[in-house]
Batch of 4 targets.
Target 1
Amino acid sequence: MSTPFPSAPMASPVVTAHPAAAPRSAPAPVAAKLAAKATPKRPPLMGQPRVLIALWQGLVTAMELPPYLVPSPILMMKTLFTDWAALGGSLWVTVKITVLAFVVATVAGVLISFLFVQSKRIETALFPYAVLLQVTPIVAVAPLIIIWVKDPTASMVICAALVALFPIISNTTLGLRSVEPDLQSYFQLNRATRLQTLLRLRIPSALPYFFGGLRISSGLALIGAVVAEFVAGTRGPGGGRGYPKLAAGASPQHPPMFAALLLISLTGVALFVLMAWLTRVALGGWHASETSHD
């Protein structure tokens, strides 16, 4: 009698759960990002303005520093209120010179960049002169401009505009040339003119670079205006910020000088914030530099 083959053990059925039944959990990197966004980040202790001002006031009071060496924040605020007639009028003149110089530098820088991008030979021939203006100290050039230009306001505007000109030229020229080759080939394939290529391709590609140059030039225009006022040395409220600083530095009353420095610093911060806001308004809807939240 033949021996039957041993039967193989039957495999137990594998029960698979439906994918919807299993709990889904977000991947680790995504969960970490969500947790980081859920918990608000607190700024460091030394990065809070209130802490720095309180520390400044405490050190001045504890060390009994004289006001002519380092004034306290409370004394500076009192000086701003008591001397606001002189400081505010001078600040307005300085802001006016800064804005005029910034507008002149922006218009001139954009026009020069448009000229550079039309021909590589023109850029190679003229760009060294723009670099020469940038590396030449404005303190050395300002006396000559003030002598040549009889109007004090116009001379100071020219000096400040020369300081703020180079970042506009450099950034805008770089942006106008930073065009994707495929898009440029597409425009050439459709026989677009130079003006059409400039308006519809190069200018939109250059906007992020242009606004980056504006953020730099706004602060440089303010610095150029202050330096020009120092060199000009004009008297009275028309002298702007330069004369009050020199007068405060020559006298033992240093709090007005620190108050003037505070106003100038706040003005520079306000200009930078304004340029950053304009950048978000212009690029916030389509460019990655403003739409990314990482």
Target 2
Amino acid sequence: MYKEFYGLRANPFNVNPDPRYLFLTRHTEEALACLTYGIQSRKGFVLLTGEVGTGKTTLINKLLEWLRLQQVATAFIFNSRLNTTQFLDYMMADFGIPSDSKAKSQILLRLYNWLLDRYRAGETAVLIVDEAQNLTEEVLEEIRMLTNLETFTEKLLQIVLVGQPELEQKLKQPQLRQLRQRLTLRAKTHALTLEETKAYIQQRLRIAGSNGQQIFDPEAVVAIHRYSNGIPRVVNLLCEHCLVSAFVDQQKVIGPAVVEFVARDFDLADGNAARAMMTSSPAAGQTTGQSKLDLADTLRSLANLADRFRDDEKDLPKERKL
């Protein structure tokens, strides 16, 4: 509803992990380079970790976009709460490998032959598992066993495990030491610095169609960084609701007061709550849980804005009321 008012073609702060909006910080570039190198060099196992909301899924979507342009076969498992049978079924279906048998031995044999055919043709296949901190030990062990699908010199299947810092802790367990030893490359996502937050907001506005006119006052950006702790998902949340709030008040430039109002509304009093909001429940960071959180927060915020609008309307002369 505010896009025309601010001269935008699209919503710049949508929470969806759109790869067009990937912001390349030094850490993000290093992580993307690590992932692509690991896949191209057939290293077998690559680990990507980062705090909730720091852009892991957006980065993975960018990687998937590149892999598909290279015509690399991919399987992307985003629901990690699967048992071993469900995991193998999902992987085979996403790779597009037909399998009539439900016998594990037959599934693995068909997968091996398919991978071998691709290898002989000079092609590779990539399995990406998101939210891997939720995988059971049994499924993690099954994933480790998939790395045994290899030739004498190279791995046939490239695997990327993606998860929150809890995944690193999980992999330190003695019973998972074999899996940990097979991790050849590790990459991480990080929170944004103040300068990166400024550039992040500008880039998203530019991609959404901004002509360069100032929308966020410099002091407002400083406040956004402080309240968000530089976590991109929280930056998006604050910016989105700042745009809605300022639009209701017909403010072309968003100042720090608007940011503070929105931050209070989301209980981001000192910035520390930004991380708490992202990690307060076991489902934090998952698509379904986040969608419910965003919907509830949006409804609450819009209700508050409507109350403010009605209060302002009471003070208008009768002939100017709607």
Target 3
Amino acid sequence: MSTPQDKVIISCALTGAVTAKQLCPAIPYTPVEIAEEAKRAYDAGAAIVHIHARTDQGLPSWDPAVFAAIMEETRKRCPVLINWSTGGAGPMKDRVEHLKSRPHIAALNMGSMNYAKWSPKKQDFAFKFVFQNSFEDIIGFAKAIREQGVKPEMECFDTGHVFSHTVLEDLGLLEKPYHFSFIMGVLGGIPATARHLAFQASNIPAGSRWKVIGISREQWPLCMAALSLGGDIRVGLEDNFYLPHGAMATSNGELVDAAVSMVKLSGREVATVAEARALLWPDGGGNF
């Protein structure tokens, strides 16, 4: 008899905010392209798709109409659970309006950090910036997410970020089971190792759901570690372009296919959309 821990919710991050077709031709920009990738991910086994909106030229967009178009096109194609991003640059008022389209889940960044990628070969940063998420902003986003009946996915880039949820808990802004994501592989955050992942997982409240988000080629070893620890996993072109054997993916569906194979090798089972809903909303509710 299977238990909730036997089921693995696979999420797929379809496009990100800054990934570009010049680097990977499969990156989707338009609502139709994003929805087609959502369908490929769903068909391969993803229960959740994480989405940033883009202009047709590929620039980041917070236009609520673009998010609404993405949702409409996706719902035409499949019943996958939709997770909007709220992270990035720009004032909060511009980064919460799209929540009125009532996705199932919304990402909630849980702390500030230096966010960088260092190239030893070039002896320089590929990118670097201060990723600022004050408690005022965290609380503000959490309130906006709750007002729309959306479940927050608490994104934690470092150890201290995990404990920030206690503020939201005290304010009555969270409903159990809590939903955490551990982002690993970014310089300035927690190192991308199985040992560090196990430490992160040990710090969250009992009964919470958690997954790992491995950046770049760290994705696959971290997925394997998460599966052995009882966690969920995220793959997708936002985080990583490459399949486990090193070839560039031609779609998000290919990355999900690889994730499904890993789940099966681990002895666990891929959660369907219905099963993911039951795990994340065991008492019902949510934007369904």
Target 4
Amino acid sequence: MDGKHRYGARMSPSRWIVAAAMACGGMWFLAMQPVSADVPASKESSLIAAFRRVEVASVSDALEQLTGKRMYMSHRMTPIFVTKFAGFARTVQLKKDEGNNDPAALSGMLSAIDEGPADSVYVMAVEDGGDIAGMGGLMGTAMAARGYSGAVIDGGVRDVAYLRKIGFPVYATGIVPSTSVRHYRFAGGQIPIVCDGVTVNPGDIVVADSDGIAVVPRARAAEVLALAEQMDFKEHSMYPVIEKLKSIQEAVKQFGRL
């Protein structure tokens, strides 16, 4: 299934496999260990694979504890289908330029897509773009073909039926039929941008799931991941304890996690 889930959105869940047969006191047993469904090709892809396994809520909490800042996007950003992804931010800014007839006004936007590597997340800020589609099916097809993890648009999205058909995940402020052609101009790529109130730098790690989107500064990625993994482990361990004791207070006392 190429690490895909509902609607084909990319993800890399862990799975348990037989790792080795080991001898102990004349007895043979099978050692089990978790491995990624996709073998990481590099340290960076391994990092992204790990972020795909943690919950965005835990990443958001870890970021707040470590940085003291809000690094999550608001409820305005909604997915076109249920999804989970992570990848390195590839940023694009569009500025209003009403009525322009410049055929090259948006060429930089297209170049930014074609130059992006696998595991990228296309992050676009469209100035006052709630009623303008920042991307659609053609751009989504190119991103999917290049192995992008997904797209986050502070603005609208269109061609949603086709994007769902090919399983390319997009978060946006809404679904609209409009075009940016002759209304907007490319204002920069691979630059710091503000997307739904959150500063996103090129190369930052963008994580998304059913709870929303969080942005991890690349320099803090390792420590944020470690803390988020701890939080996930505690929370998932608490569920059966709460069910057994029928008390969330007792579980919080035991695990120190809420």
